[in-house]
């Protein structure tokens, strides 16, 4: 699994055009206090994220899906804007993030999708 993530990150950086990127986080919490642990994660991660010129733009609770297959509804979503792809990679490798924030995120989530987004050009 780690190799898949490393390969995806390598491809992500290889295709970097220097433009801002927004990470869509689709979140499914663990039943045993996952939502609360995620709030702890946000409190620790927010100042770390800011050091890389990024900002948490939106965090919201999921409502029942209007159009989805079973199992496609999410407990919450988060949008985090990074000035460029390198800023995201640098955050992911940062010792403070990896040691203090990432373990809380992992403990909070039963499942997650991290989908990079860029503004569509017309």
TrEMBL record:
InterPro entries found in the cross-reference section: Dimeric_a/b-barrel, DUF1330
| Residue ranges of domain DUF1330 in the record | 35-109
This protein's species is: Mesorhizobium sanjuanii
Q: Which domain of life is it from?
A: Bacteria
Protein name per its UniProtKB record:
DUF1330 domain-containing protein
């Amino acid at each position: 699994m780690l190799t898949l993530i490393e390969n995806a990150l390598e491809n992500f950086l290889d295709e970097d055009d220097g433009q801002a990127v927004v990470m869509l986080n689709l979140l499914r919490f663990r039943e045993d206090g996952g939502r609360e642990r995620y709030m702890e994660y946000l409190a620790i991660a927010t100042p770390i994220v800011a050091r890389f010129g990024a900002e948490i733009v939106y965090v919201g609770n999921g409502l029942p899906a209007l159009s989805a297959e079973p199992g496609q509804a999410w407990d919450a979503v988060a949008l985090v804007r990074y000035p460029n792809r390198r800023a995201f990679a640098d955050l992911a490798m940062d010792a403070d993030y990896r040691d203090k924030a990432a373990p809380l995120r992992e403990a909070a989530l039963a499942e997650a999708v991290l989908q990079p987004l860029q503004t569509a050009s017309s």
